[in-house]
Amino acid sequence: MGGGYAPNDIDLSDPVYEKILVKSPASIANLGPGFDILALAIEGLYDKVLVKPLKEPRIVVNADGAPPGRDNSAYAVAEHMLSRYCPNCGVVVHVWKGVPVSAGLGSSGATSAAVAYALNELYGLNLTTEELLEAAVEGEHLVSGARHYDNVAASLLGGLVIIGRHAGLGVLRLDPPDAWLGIVIMQSNERGKTGLARSLLPRDLDLQRHIAQTSAVASLLAAIHLNDPVLFGRAVSVDYVAEPVRKAMIPLYDELKATALREGALGFNISGAGPSVFIVHNDRGEAERIVRELVQLLSANGVSAESFVTSPSAEGVKVIDSD
Ligand code: HSE
User: Fold this and answer.
1) For the chain, how big is the Rg over CA atoms in Å?
2) What's the CATH code of the domain at 263?
3) What domain range includes position 210?
4) What tens digit of pLDDT does each residue of 241-274 get?
């Protein structure tokens, strides 16, 4: 039981338990070399989640733009939260998808972080960030079969997150870099897309690649520290783990990357598990021009995609009144 909370003491007729509405940002996981350890929350694409208590102990999940019930990441998160912290409680969760699904923009992570945060607020649980992440990651496990913390942490906390669990650091949030992100949004029809994209990954990495990969992660973090978008972009473009195998799932990947970098993008890589890709730029207009060109290249080859230019989001999940 967290925070000295006693579920049987809850009076559901108390107006404080009426409902909580939150919004939760999309995120770009991995950022090139930071597989499973780095992610960045972004502005402009949000899920909204409403939670309302039920008098009987059951979980109801409705969703606009995603499957309802047990197939929704929201269900796994609510189940974890209620079974652990409030076993006699019930809840109705309504999810409105604003983050495109199966695109590599942290859609399940945004919903999962939102549900953990909203239930913590609804029942006054006072859970720690770690406890909220442990709940939210159950949504990722449901969807991909893996407990990767990157997207849920970025959606929950905003900014750029470092998953420091291997160093005993929990999750670290840094202020986001000063850069524009141009995103070419593509959506996969593949069921279990993230699980499939993870199954392609190499089990081992040779020493030279390990050195190059860790050098790129270190450079990326130095770029944040120095607020250097050029270095940030260069570091983002490096990946010896996921990009070499996952690019096969993304139409025209090599051509997209070459075009983006030739046209002046500071960096380019796969967003999360893909298939969306992103560029880094220090000029918004240029970022818009380049991603439009990438979308045209795809469309000339029969692939439908959309472009979107945004900036990092300093904020993570937050309570909103409406809309
Ligand atoms: N780090 C995860 C992966 C993010 O690349 O599989 C998935 O959204």
Assistant:
1) 20
2) 3.30.70.890
3) 177-310
4) 999 999 999 999 999 999 999 999 999 999 999 9
